[in-house]
Amino acid sequence: MQLRYAFRLYPDAGQRTELAKAFGCARVVFNDAVRAREDARKAGMAFPTAGDLSRKLITEAKRTKERAWLGEVSSVVLQQSLRDAEAAYRNFFASLNGTRKGPRNGPPRLKSRKDARQSVRFTANARWKITADGRLNLPRAGAVKVKWSRTLPTTPTSVTVVKDSAGRYFASFVIVTDPAVDQARMPYTDRTIGIDLGLFHFAVLSDGTKIDSPRFLRRAEKKLKKTQRELSRKQKGSKNREKARLKVARAHAKVADARREFHHQLSTKMISENQGIAVEDLAVSALARTRLAKSVHDAGWAEFVNMPAYKAARYGRTLVRIGRFEPTSQVCSTCGIKDGPKPLNVREWTCTACGAHHDRDHNAALNIKTAAGLAASACGAPVRPGAIPAQREETGSHGFKTGSRAT
Predict the structure, then answer these.
(1) Is 84 among the catalytic positions?
(2) What interhelical angle do 13-42 and 75-96 show, nearest 10?
(3) Rounded Cα gap, residues 7 and 27, in angstroms
C-alpha cells in the first residue's frame, strides 16, 4: 500500500533561495507546457509529445537568453514538472470520457508564483539522499535540516519538497508498505462499531460513547479575526502586508493541524479497537451551503471519514458506508418501526410502537451499524466488506525490505 510520510524541513536562508529558484523554474516549465498544448489545440494541430516538449521547453530553452536561468536548477525538477502537466491532461481527458471516477476535472490551469502551495519533486536520478546525521541532501540546496517524527519503514525513491501558504517547508515521501506486516500489527477482534457524526457531539458510537466536538475553528475565531483585520489595514504590495498575510496563514494552519491531529488519533483508536466500522455517507458539500456551513467545515467530516477508509485497507479492517438517505434517525433500533421524521431540536424520543426511549444520536449509530450488516458480527458471522477508495498513483518506493519496521 502506498502511504505518504511528511516531515518538517528547516532550510537556512541560502537553501530557501535555491528552493525558490526550483519552485519558480518548475512553475515556468509547467506553464510553458500548458501554453504549448493550448496553442496546438487552437491551431487544430496534434498535441506535442512529451519528448518534443522536453526538447523544446527544457533543452533548447536553456540555450536562449530568456530561459537561460533554467540551467540553475536540477534538470530532474524540470522533467518532473512536465510529467505533472502530462498527468493533469490525462486526468482531464479521463474525466471527460467517464473513465475517471469522482468529481469532474477541469483542464490544467496556469500556475502563479502567488499560489498558496509550491512544490518540486526529486527522483533517484537527482541523487538526493539522507545523510548520516539525518539531513536531507538536495541538489543545489545542500543538506537541509529535517525534523524526523518517525522512522521510514522502507527506502523511498523520490521526495517532494513542499512550501505551504504559511511559509513552512515539508519533505514528502511516498512509501510502499507490506500488507502482511501492517495487518500483523493489529490482531483480529470481534468488535464492531457504528458511528453517527454530528455537530454538538462530533461522534456518537453505537456502544453509547459520545465524543465532544473540539470546535477548533470556533475557539480560534477571535484570534483569526484580529489577524485578518491587521491584514486588511496593510497597503497592498508592501512588505508589512506580506508579513500580515503570513500571520493569518499560520493561524489557519494551526487550526487545520490541530483538527487533523484529532482526526488521526480518533480514527486510529477506532481502527485498532474494532474489526468493522460503519459510517454514514454524508452530503458534506451540500451541508456546507447551509447556515451551518462554518460548523460543518469546522468538524471536517469528509477528512475524518477518509482516514479510517485507508487505515482499514492497511490493517485488514472493514469500513462500510451506508447511504445518506437511510432513515437512521426515524427508525426505532429496538423494534425496527419507522416513527417518522423529527426536527433537529428533538434529541430524545419514545417509540410509539414498543415504548423504547431513545437518545437520537445513539439510536442513529445503532441503526447505522445494523444497516451496514455489522450487528451480527460479534456473534461470529463474517463482516461484510466495504468499498475502500484506491490510493492515488504516485512515484513510490522500493519493495518492502525484510526486517524493516512499519510505523
Answers:
(1) no
(2) 40
(3) 23
Under DSSP, the state recorded for 185 is T
Burial class (CB in 10 A: 0-12, 13-18, 19+), 67: middle
- Contact indicator for 330, 339 with CB cutoff of 8 Å: yes
Determine whether 182 is an active site residue.
no
Residue type, 261: E
Residue 280 annotated in active site: yes
Active-site annotation holder among 18, 84, 196, 298: 196
Q: What is the CA radius of gyration of the chain?
A: 25
Q: Tell me the three cell numbers of residue 144.
A: 537541509
Q: Of 111, 105, 58, 49, nearest to 80 (Cα)?
A: 58
Integer angstrom CA distances of residue 130 from 133, 185, 303: 8, 27, 31
**How does DSSP assign 252-267, residue by residue?**
HHHHHHHHHHHHHHHH
- How far apart CA 178 and CA 173 sit, in angstroms, is 16
**Smallest Cα–Cα separation from 152: which of 170, 174, 135?**
174
Q: How far apart are CA 251 and CA 222, in angstroms?
A: 11
Burial of residue 199 (number of CB atoms within 10 Å: 0-12, 13-18, 19+) = middle
State whether residue 186 is helix, strand or coil: coil
Q: Is the pTM of this model over 0.70?
A: yes
Cell, residue 3: 502511504
C-alpha to C-alpha distance for 235 and 242, rounded to whole angstroms: 10
Encode pLDDT of 32-66 as tens digits.
999 999 999 999 999 899 999 999 999 999 999 99
> Whole-angstrom Cα distance, residue 48 to residue 58?
14
Strand ranges, E, within 140-226: 142-147, 159-163, 169-176, 192-197, 201-205, 210-212
Options 18, 32, 182, 280, the catalytic residue: 280
Do the Cβ atoms of 319 and 388 come closer than 8 Å? yes
**How many Å apart are CA 216 and CA 222, to the nearest integer?**
12
Task: Provide the β-strand partners of residue 192.
Answer: 276
In angstroms, the CA 389 to CA 308 distance is 11
- Per DSSP, the three-state class of 232 is helix
User: Helix (H, G, I), strand (E, B), or coil: what is residue 121?
Assistant: strand
pLDDT tens-digit profile of 209-262?
A: 999 999 999 999 999 999 999 999 999 999 999 999 999 999 999 999 999 999
Contact 407, 151 (CB under 8 A): yes
